[in-house]
Amino acid sequence: MDWALVVLRAALFFYAAGFVSALAALWGGPRGFSRVTPWLAGVGAVCHTLALFLLGGTLGRCPLGTLPEVLSAVAWASVVVTLAAWWRFRAEVLMLVILPLAIVVLSIAKVAPGEMLPVPETLRLPIGRFHIAAVVLGVAALTVTFAASLIYVVVDRALKAKRPARFFRALPSLEGCDRIGHLSLMCAFPLLTLGIVTGAIYSESLTGSPWTWQQREILAILSWIILGVVVVARLGWGWRGRRAALLTILGFGLVFLRLLGIS
Fold first, then answer.
1. For the segment 115-138, what is each residue's pLDDT rounded down to a tens digit?
2. What is the pTM of this model?
3. φ/ψ (deg, to 5) at 142
4. What are phi and psi for residue 118, nearest 5 degrees?
5. I need a surface site. Which of 5, 42, 195, 237 has the fewest CB within 10 A?
């Protein structure tokens, strides 16, 4: 029996249960739903962690060697970072975005061919591991930024339309969304920058050139530039609100496409 797969399915079950409870709380269900959501997500994260360890033990290496493995790690890290954000800000509504996203990413991981991210023996070099770790953590932090930005746009649109839905009271304030998005982006951008730099060094060690002009590389740089503009605009020009949120959502979309290996 493949215990790693069994435990991973248990993680998916708890992620799904957490999403359902968060949705029920948003639509005016008993307050207990909002309290149980982080616990369900936490149990799912524990099961996911165990699944990664079991997979690594079965493979005899770090489970970051193929595209499905990297996607699984990104989903795990995104949930863990979101739980940390919940612990700090008590914004359960983030789970409404992150948990279904984690489920979708894990579903893609089950059908994505491993050959899309072949890992030669040289990936065991420290720079290769460091590159993958930086990208996984950077994307995880950026996922929280995306969730906060998306919620910001929803809240802002409802306020301008003067038609707040029944669940509007369960959403955080615009200031709260902006703060979470700002702090998580300040963590994500340096990590993604580090991922690009180490990726160039790693490419140099394999091909003799840090830049091969592949469309996937261009996509990564383009997303980095967009996120860099948001960072500079926030720090230097005082950008807040809708413009920063929309650009962040665009940057995340490009990062996600690059992560899937779409060229």
1. 434 444 544 466 777 888 899 999
2. 0.83
3. -65, -30
4. -65, 140
5. 237
